[in-house]
Fold each of these.
Amino acid sequence: MSEPALHATAPVRLDFAGGWTDVPPFSEREGGVVVNATIGLHTHAELTLGGSDVRLVSEDLGEEVLLPLAAPLPPASGGVALLLAGARRLGIRDGGWTLRTRSDTPPGSGLGSSGAVGVAVAAVLSRARGETLEPEEIARRAWTLEAVEAGMPGGKQDQWAAALGGFLRLEFSDPDVRAERLALDPAFLEVLARRTVLCYTGRSRVSGETIARVMGAYREGDRQVSTALRALAAAAREMAEALRSADLARVGALLSENWRQQCALDPGMRTAEMTRLEAAVASAGVLGGKAAGAGAGGAMFFLARDDPATVAAAARAAGADVFPVTWSQEGVRTW
C-alpha cells in the first residue's frame, strides 16, 4: 500500500532585465546581473512512496518512464531528463516510488518553468530523504540536476527565483550567486501587476545550440555579442533602481532596451509571431516590453500605458494567449 504523497510547489518568474548574463562563460568572466520576480503560476511535484518500481511522470509532456528497482538508472535525457536527474542524484533507494510533475504554464513558455520544476523536484526528494534545506541549497541542487546531471545548458536565475520567490536582484560570479530581495512599495506593486500584460506566442525555439552559439561568439570576442551582454547587465542594474523608485515609465523603457540588446545576440531571437504581437500591442499603447525568457518564441510581457484590457485584447487578436499576473512573494514550498 502506498504511503501518503509528499508535495512541492515552486513559482515561475518574469525576468525584468539581465537574462543571458547568468550564463557561462559571461557569468564567469565578467559577472552577470538579473532582476526578476516570481508570479502566481507554479510548477508542482508529487512523490508517492511504495510499489515495486520507480515511475517518473511528466504530465506536461505526456511522458512516463518506468524503471525496475534492480536495473541501473539510465542517463538523464529526453522529456523526463530533470526527473531522471533527480532520481540519479537524490532518489530513494529502499523501495519503489512515483514522482509526478506538472506546470501551470505551457512547455517552452520562457517563464523559467524547467528551472522551477527542478526546484520542486529537488525539494520533494530532499524532504523524502529527511533533509531540511535552506532555499539557496535547494536552488543549488536544482541547478546541478539540470546543468550537470541532465547536461542542459543555461544560467541560474530560474532556480534562485523559484526557490526564493519575490522580487530579486541576482548577481552571478560563478560559482557564487548573491541574491538581494528588493523591498518595493506595495501600491506600486499593485499598479505594476495591473499594468503587466503577459502573452504566450507559442513554444520557444531557443535550444542548446542557440545558447552555445551565443556564448561561443562571446568566448571568441565577437564585438556585437559582447557589447549586448554588457548592456543587458547594465539594464538589470538600472532596472533594480527603477523598481525601487516606483518609476513605471522607466521600467517600461528598460524592458524595451533589454529586448533590443537581447535581439542583438542572435538573428533568431525575434520570431514572426513576436513581431506581430509587438506591433499589435504598440498600437494599443504600451510603455515597453520584452520576451519573458531566452526568446525565439515563448511568452512576452508588456506594460500598458493606460488600459491593460485594451492591450490584452490586441494581444489576443494577434493570436497570443494572455495569462493573469499576480506577484508571488513565496518561493518553494513543501508539505
Note: The longest strand covers residues 32-49.
Amino acid sequence: VTPALIVMKRGPMGCTAYPGPIPGALDDGLNGPGFPVDVFNVLGAGDAFMAGLLRGWVRGEPLPNALRYANACGAIVVSRHGCAPAMPSWTELAHFMAHGSPHRKLREDADLEHLHRASTRQRAWPSVAALAFDHRAQFEALAAQHGVARERIGHFKGLVAQAAGLGHDAARASTVDAATFPLPGVLVDGRYGPAVLSGLAGRGVWIGRPVELPGSRPLAFDDGPNIDLTLRSWPVDHVVKCLVSHHPDDEAGLAEQQLASLERLAAACQASGHELLIELIPPNDLPSPPGRATPLVRALTQVYARGVRPDWWKLPPPADAAAWQALADVITDHDPHCRGVLLLGLEASEDALRRSFELAAAQPLCKGFAVGRSIFADAAARWFAGTLDDMGVVADVAERYRRLILLWCGARRAALTSTSKETST
C-alpha cells in the first residue's frame, strides 16, 4: 500500500526491515541481529529502538547500520532501570557496538555506566573560578579564639558569598576576552552556609559542597556513615566535594579504609546523579622513594585502580611541566571524560598563585581554580577580631577574588597565544 520502509521488531531476535516489496517469508527481509542482554525493564524500549533507527535513517547511512543502532539502543535501555534517563548517548552507543560488554546485565558494566554519566552531563563548565569557603574547623577555631558564637560563622560566609558575586562581576567588567573568562563558582558547606546554598540556587553558579568530616583520617563523612541517605537530600546540581588526605605509601589498613570510603561515595553519587570532586592532598610526613612517580600521581593511580572515576579533581599545583604531564597522563589514561582539575591554593600568596597559574594555564586538563584562604583569610582574622566591619569584608574579599580571576585570565591568554604561535610556526 505504501512505499515506506517497514521495520518489524522481533524482540531478542532483533528486527527485520522491508525496504521494498514484501517477500513471501518474514526472514527474507533484511535482518538486524539482536544483542544478548537480560531484560530488566521494558519501559522506553520502543522509543530507544526508534531513536537508534532514525539516527542512521535520517543521515542516509546504510540500512544495516540503522538497524544495528536500533537494536543496540533497545538492548541498552531494557537492561537498565528507567526510561528516558536510560537512553544511550552516541558516545556510549558507539562504545557498546565496538566493544560489546562482558555483562548481560548492562547496568552492571562499570565502563558503560560511566560513559553514560559522563556523556549525558547537563551543563558544560569549560572554565571555573571558584571561591572556596567550605571550611568549618578553621572558622570554628577562629570563633573560639575571639570568643565569637559559632552562629556568626554563617553570617561571615554570607558576606563572602556577596563578595564572590561582586568580585566576579568586577573582573568580567575589566576584561573583554570572553574566551579566557571563567564561570563563577563557590565551595560552601551545609553546616554554616545553608543560606548561601539556597541563595545561589538556579543562578548558574558552579556549586561544590563538602561531604567529608573535617580533619578525618581515615576518611569519614560529616553527616554520618550513610552517605546514600545524605545525598538524597541534596540538590542534584551540587557537586559533592570530598577532601581525602591519602598517601600512596600509607599503612595498608588505613589505605584500605580510605579507598573503600571513596568507593562508597562514588557509588552513592552514581545512584543519586551528583557529580563528584575529589580533593586529594598527600600528607607530607612520608618520604617519597627516589626514582618513583610523585606521591600525588601514585595516589591518583590507586584511586582509579579501585574503579573510582571522579568528575573533577581538586589538586595541589604540580611543581613543573613534567609533573603536570605525569598527572595529566594518569587522568586521561584512566578517564578521558574527566571534567578536569581545579587548583587549590593552600593559603599561598598571590605571587605564588600567579606562578602556579602560569604553569597550569598551558594544561588543557586544568579548568581553573578553587581557592579560599588566600582570598578571605586576612579579612576573616580581622572580622572575627572585631577590627573589620561587614562592608570591609565584602570589599576586601571581592577585590582579592577579582585580582585572582584576572591573573588566571592573563595566564590562560598567554598560554593560548603561545600555542597559537607554535602552531603557526
Note: Residues 390-424 form the longest helix (35 residues).
Amino acid sequence: MSFRPIPAGVIFAVALVFSPAVAGPVGDAEAQIGEAYADYRAALFQTNQKDSAATHVALTAFHTRWGALSAAWKTSPPPQYVDDPKLTDTLDIVIRITNEAKAAAAMGDLQKSHDILEAIRGEIGALRGRNGLISFSDRMNAYHEVMEHATDGGEMTTTSALEHAGVLAYLAKDLGANRPSGVDAAAFDAAFKALEASVKAFQGAARSGDKAATDLARKGLKSPYSRMFLRFG
C-alpha cells in the first residue's frame, strides 16, 4: 500500500481559523454541541473497543441529545448559525449518520459503526468553520486527520515521516496552547504531555532515518490521542 500525502488543506485551514470570544446565547449553543459531542466521543471510543453494550448506551445518548438540539435549533437557531443556509441539512445529516451507525452496531459490526461515525467530525467541524468558529474539538480533529495519515500502515519514506512529524508537532503545540476552559487542568496537562511525548518520539525516530524505529513510533501515536480525545476532545 502506498503512503498518502498530507492534504494541503489540513495545514492551511488550521493556520486560518480563529476562536472568537463566546458568551450568552452563543456560548450556550456551543455548550449544547459540547455536551452532545461528549456522547459522540464515547461512541467512537466504545466502537473502537468493540464493546457492544457501551456502544449502544453512547449512541443512544448522542442520538437523544442531538435530536433535542436539532429540534430546538430548527425552531430557533442560535445567533452564530441563524444565517447558515446549510444548518438544517447538517442537523439532519448528523442524525442520519447516527442512525446508520446504530444499525451497523445492532448487526454486530462495530468497526463499520465506528467508520460511519467518523463522518460526524467533519459535519460539525464544517458547521463551525463556515460560520467563523473553532473549538478545541476542531483542533483535535485537525490533529487526528494528520495522525491517521501517519498511522495508516502504508509505506513511509524518511521524507514523508519528517513531514508528518513536523505537522503533528505544530498541531500538538496548538492543542497545548488552547486548553479548554473549565477542565481539570492537571488532568489535561498530563494527557497533553503524553500526546506531546508520542509526537517527539515519532519526530526523533524520523530524524534518525531508522525505518523500524519510525514505524514503531508512529504506531505509538494513537493511544495518547485516544485518551485525550475521549476526555477533552
Note: The two ends are 30 Å apart (CA to CA).
